[in-house]
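Field log, afternoon session.

UNIT: design team B
ACTIVITY: writing a sequence onto a fixed backbone
BACKBONE:
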């Protein structure tokens, strides 16, 4: 359970909670569309960190960290789409600094594991 001690995992878990809170207010017709995609992308971030941390090799861990990065980018795009469609206000979007911080932490962890 080493992943539970990782700051990047903790931050990404907070992000999941935030995304669920935001998407719970989406129009009914979007609950199984964009909102569902956003939730899956958000959940994928800490899930892949945890799965990768449980693997035996650094190479496998790095692969899962890259998947987390992809999910983070997917979520950022979906947040922008939501904003453009008027489903969320700019002030209700998860703190972009946290998104960037998660990205930087994932990239740093990848670099560290590659050495």
């Amino acid at each position: 359970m080493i992943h539970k001690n990782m700051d990047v995992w903790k931050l990404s878990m907070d992000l999941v909670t935030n995304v669920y809170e935001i998407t719970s207010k989406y129009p009914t017709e979007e609950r199984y569309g964009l909102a569902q995609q956003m939730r899956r992308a958000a959940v994928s971030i800490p899930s892949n960190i945890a799965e990768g941390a449980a693997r035996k090799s650094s190479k496998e861990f790095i692969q899962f960290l890259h998947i987390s990065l992809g999910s983070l980018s997917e979520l950022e795009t979906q947040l922008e789409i939501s904003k453009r469609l008027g489903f969320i206000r700019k002030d209700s979007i998860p703190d972009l600094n946290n998104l960037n911080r998660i990205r930087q932490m994932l990239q740093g962890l990848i670099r560290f594991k590659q050495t």
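LOG NOTE: The two ends are 23 Å apart (CA to CA).
NEXT ACTIVITY: expression trials, pending approval
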